[in-house]
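Newbie here. three chains, one complex. Structure please?
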Amino acid sequence: MGGNSNVKLISDDGIRIDGRKVDELRPIRIEAGVLKRADGSAYVEFGKNKVLAAVYGPRECHPRHMQNPAKAIIQCKYNMIAFSVNDRKRPGPDRRSVEISKIISEAFEYVVFTENFPRTSIDVYIEVLQANAGTRCAGLTAASVALADAGIPMRDLVPSVAVGKVNDQVVLDLQKEEDNFGQADLPIAMIPRTGEILLMQMDGHMTRAEFDRALELGVGACKRIYDLQKDALARRYSVEKTDEEQPDEGAPADAQEG
Amino acid sequence: MNKEGMGSSREIVLPGDLLDSGGRMKAGSGTYVQDGRVYAAQVGIKSVKSNFVNVIPLGGRYIPTPGDSVIGKVVDIGPSNWLVDINSPYPAPLHVNEVPWRVDFGDTARFMNVGDTLLAKILMVDETKRVQVTMKEQGLRKLQGGQVVEISYSKVPRVIGKGGSMIQMIKNMTNTRIFVGQNGRIWLDGDIENIVFAIRAIRMIEENAQTMRLTERVKEYLESVSKPAPAEGSESR
Amino acid sequence: MARAVMSEIKKDHIHKLLAKGRRVDNRAWDEFRPITIQPGYIETAEGSARVKVGNTDVLVGVKMTIGEPFADTPNKGVLSTNAELIPMASPNFESGPPDENSIELARVVDRGIRESQMVDLEALCIEPEKEVWIMFTDMYVLDYDGNLFDAAFLGAIAALNNTMVPAKANDRGDDYPLPIRHMPISVTAVQIENSILVDPTLDEEKVAEARLTVTTDENGDLRAMQKGLAGAFTLDQIYKCVETSQRLGNDLRKLIG
């Protein structure tokens, strides 16, 4: 956080530099099943963020010593591509992306029924194609849809959003300028139905009252993002109302040879 | 849309969707229970059968169950076993005692090699999901010739159709032999032109598995491509 | 890249179809899969393009900074090309530093751009021996279904073609389009049992004995080549590939606009 509250980012009538109100999300677009090779995939835009997520697995866990005999491990790799930011980022992991990968993996460990797939790995790849603040939240939102698209059994979808503090006001879903000159940043991810928080980080400076307000805004926004996640999956798997003879479930493959 | 009392509906559900709140139904496959309520654990179609609510998955990887017929691919070879990829998270060892041939120690490569395709059955799956397959049953064998295609295992019932109607139609209209493995691999054999037509029909089913009039559309396609050529061996020159 | 085992039955099927002059997806031997190009896909890049060739999906971006020229070319801008085969794109790609496959891909694309003198590097000199523009072209494979060479090359030239030199942000006057002088196109073919197939799919690549990439310019002149894989080409096959590249190059060039 820059912590520089002299830069005026919110007008006197409460309008932010991109025209939003303090409790307004950027336009969000979610598509499921966008890649051919991956077992599951999703594309997410949060304003000017463009993020792609892909899931492979459950598959044999490599390296072998990472295998857990009782459950699957989740290996998330968050990465920003070289031209996703204004100053070219050197390809390859850095300390920031390693940390983000770890906390996203841990968030998914909670929702995925990992015990169904002992000794395997579920690999989640998040590639930030274009960054404009809040990429870990956009990435987690995308990865959650990609996991569902891959048919992985899980408790629920996980939406994610960041809340921050700009010009001494609590604001939802910071974009780049607000992130650069803001006073606090609080990314969260949760299961809206149960209220369980699966990811939370914070940096900057917030009073207890501001924190309560931020969390309230974040929880409300997560519910809206959750609906968009569900809508993306529903579009991907939409059924034309059908009539036609349904196959017997679990039809025996025996005797299918002619 | 949904015939009450028929016990089956076509409702798409997503992870976290509430399936039963009153404890009237028991949690079946693809579901989980939290605070006495049943929720969907997977993207799929809700199905109610004899007091169980299940989610029939619309995606995901094949998870082996004993007795399943599968099409495997040899990916590694040892002195007394082959390692078979069965399109699931778990590669399955095939021991020399589970094949229809007498194989001496170290002589495995003489019978099957890396890249070979075989018809096998899931023999057992232990609690840590270790899988073993067998070829010691009638009809199980090494496959030669033809072509192998892969589809999502969740679409296998659709390709087979009710009582085998869909696959039977493709076989009849293309004059091919087809074996559908429950792991989503399909082996086809016959005249190569006919194989190509049959594969396209299967791809149509795969891409449109959830749409109306599928059987009719596949039939129209197969009628449009030809009178199928006669079976293998009698191709005109 | 971990090598996946290809089923013998699938290999035989490709061979049997080829014996009848057919490909698995029913294309002609010299036919590309459907191509889509989305230029300007990424706003944070100076130039970018997302290119799909069939199911193969590649994203290319160009970033420019000011730096020092190389001592032996004091009055020329610097070209740097990098390819990432990210694990998102294929179950057989692994994370980590670039392996031999991504290095070969980057170098083949780089040669086509450099040797064709596509970009006027002298126009990218700000002050000889002191300041020149440095161009980073980064290519990311998002979905891999064969023929990365041509998909990445199309992505690279489409991205360069819509690159704006960020002069304003660097206090060097107004932004201006990257000076483009030539428009090279690469066409890749593989040889399978004496058949030549343009734009191979992944399955065709797995069966292929040899691969040849030929990069030509708008005059049909040769600018770069790369033979790959363990098989060999006859001279006649080489001529056929060159002629095909010249002919198809003209069609593909129209897609860049």
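Moderator note: The mean pLDDT of chain C is 96. The interface with chain B takes residues 5-13, 16-17, 20, 22, 26 of chain C (CB under 8 Å). Thread marked as resolved.
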